[in-house]
Amino acid sequence: MADFTRQQQEAISTLGRNVSVSAGAGSGKTRVLVERFLKILEEEKASAQEILAITFTRKAAREMRERVQKGILDRLAEATDPQRQQYWQEQLNQLDHASITTIDSFCARIIRENPVEAGMDPGFAVREEYEIADFRQEAVHTFMDQELKGENEDFFGLLDIYGPRRLEEMLVLLIDALPDILALGDLSRPYQEELDKEEDLKLEAESALDDLIAVKDTAGPKGKELILRLEEQRDSLHEAIAKGDYETLAEAVGGLRAAGAIKDFAAKLKETVSTLLDLDLNRAGLAQAAQWQTVLERLDQYLFTAAEQQEMYSFSYISAKAVKLLGTDPELLRTYRNKFKFLMVDEFQDTNEEQKRLVYLVSGGDAKVLRGNNLFVVGDAKQSIYRFRGADVSVFKQVRDAIVASGGKDIIMDDNFRSAPEIIQACNVLFEDLLGTDETADVQAQSLTPHQAPTELPRFMVLKKQSETDKGAAQRVKAQWVAAAIQELVASHPELKYGDVAILLPAIRLSRQYEEALDALGIKSQVSDGKGFYDRQEIVDVINLLTCLLNPRKDWALAGFLRSPWGGLSDPEIGELVKDYPELTLWEALQQALEPRQVKLAASLHTLRQMALYQSLPEFFDCLNQEFQAEPLLLSQRGGREKLANYRKLRTLGTEAAMNQGSSVQDFLQRLQLMRALGARESDANQEADPEAVKIMTIHKSKGLEFPAVILPDLDQNAPADKLGIQFIPQAAFGVRVPNAEGVLENTGIYTLLSREKSALEFNEKKRQLYVAMTRAEKYLYMVSIEEIKKKPVKEATQEKWGSALLRVFGPQGPAAGKVAYDECPVESVGILTEEGILAKRQVPHSAPQVPAKVYQQAAPVAFPKALRLSASALLEYDTCPRSYYYHYQRHMPPVEVEMTGTGKHRVSVMDLGTFVHRVLQLMNTLPQEEALELALAENENWSEEKRRYMREDGGALLGSYCASPLYTNLEGYEAQAERDFDLNLFTLGQTEIWFQGSIDKLVFLPDQKLGIVDYKTGHPPVDGEERQGYTRQLAIYALAAETLYKGYTVAWAQLHFLQNNSIWELKDREAETEKLRALLKNLSEWDEETAFPVRTEACSYCPYQYFCTKA
Question: Would the pTM count as exceeding 0.85?
Answer without folding.
Answer: no
